[in-house]
Amino acid sequence: MSFPVSNIDPGPPGKTLRVIDSHTEGEPTRVVIAGGPELGRGPMSERARRLREEHDWLRQAVCNEPRGHDAMVGALLCAPHEPDCVCGVIFFNNVSNLNMCIHGTIGLVATLRHIGRIGTGIHRIDTPVGVVTATASDDGEVEVANVPSWRHAAGVPVEVPGWGIITGDVAWGGNWFFLIENQGPAVGFAQLDALTEFTWAVRHALAAQGITGADGGEIDHVETFGPPGDPALADSRNFVMCPGKAYDRSPCGTGTSAKLACLATAGKLRPGEILRQASILDTVFRGRFEPLPGGKILPRISGRAWVNGEGTYFLNPDDPFAHGIPS
Ligand code: PYC
């Protein structure tokens, strides 16, 4: 399915990539099913590092303009390293690799079903941060059992220029999140510009003040919550700022996992109880958790994806932007 390309150089001129597009509750995923670089064998974390350091052209060709846009999340379909997995996957966006991506996993499952690689049922998927398990139902719903998640720190104050002291929790849900409740602009679509400005300022303030996840992990996602638009449909509405300054159109599965970890640790949600998390577009993920030893949880997030395109990309040597506008 894939062909080898040389290291570091701008990629394979004159070759093609095969991609399948989907969106999960509004957030796009572009899965590269053929034509990606040969990353060898070994753990997905190792192959993700190789993709980032030696073949970053793929990310830029797929996610950046002129083919992509800021909100695009790419996914490279790989052979798995862990046994019994249906595939491996490496996610990336407009600025770098992503550790984990739940909306992308739901999109990947829809894509694998579309090309006949899997059917309904339970599928293990190998990722750079561990194996996740996806359950695909007849009605198109996909539930992802994520990697173990936990609240790292509660009520952390950060001085945000122009906004004052903002207090939030730091949690891991497959990526590092700073979670803010009822502070800053109201969480609604009409406030998109203000929410972008606010969460981006928080992200920079966290970095400037040395506030990190465990082992110095960069907090590259900021999530702010408010009441739901319609309490009959959701319990809360969020706005999630992603690492490349695009907001998540979906409710963000890793962010919902991080929120479940905070609610579980604060005793505000019981094991098995459902949290209906709405996005800024009022699309909804359902989340629940099982407790794990050591104060961690196993989050389960469900939502739906729709395949909405297939493509062949030409990496034409005459095209100055064959590998995207660099970022
Ligand atoms: O759904 O986990 C997610 C996600 C992360 C970044 C964008 N979406």
Count the beta strands: 16
Helix content: 10-25%
Order of helices and strands: EEHHEEEHEEEEEEHEEHEEE
Strand proportion, as a percent range, falls in: 35-45%
Major beta sheet, specifics? 8 strands, mixed, barrel
By secondary-structure content and strand pairing, the structural class works out as alpha+beta
In spatial order, strands of the major sheet run 1-2-3-4-6-7-8-16
The best one-word shape is globular
Rounded to the nearest angstrom, the distance between the terminal CA atoms is: 27 Å
Rg (CA only): 19 Å
Number of discrete helical segments: 5
Mean pLDDT: 95
Protein name: 4-hydroxyproline 2-epimerase
Family: Belongs to the proline racemase family.
Pfam family, one: Pro_racemase
Organism: Haloferula sargassicola
